[in-house]
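We keep the chain:
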Amino acid sequence: MVKVYHAPGTRSVGPVWLCYELELTVDSASYHQWCWFAEAKLHASRSVVDDALAGRDYLLGADFTAADIMMGYSVGLLERVMGDGYPNATAYLNRLTSRPASRRLADLEA
């Protein structure tokens, strides 16, 4: 059993998404917010991610991994705040958000 304390709209979406991908049961409660790392430097990291995705579907190549879940939240956050301008990152985010577990999470967040 994995217990995730989920606060909608926060970084805890990463662990919840990972549990959905792994088909694990998730207990959630909105009283606790997870914050895995500060996002103060995300804008600079977005260009690094965009460059890393050139010629590949996911961060580590052709296969989807947990690293994509963790980075996907940050890329999505930047997309909402700053718009596009990074074509590889935008296509990557579209691939991530089309996954069934990501759509399930979007329903939870709505």
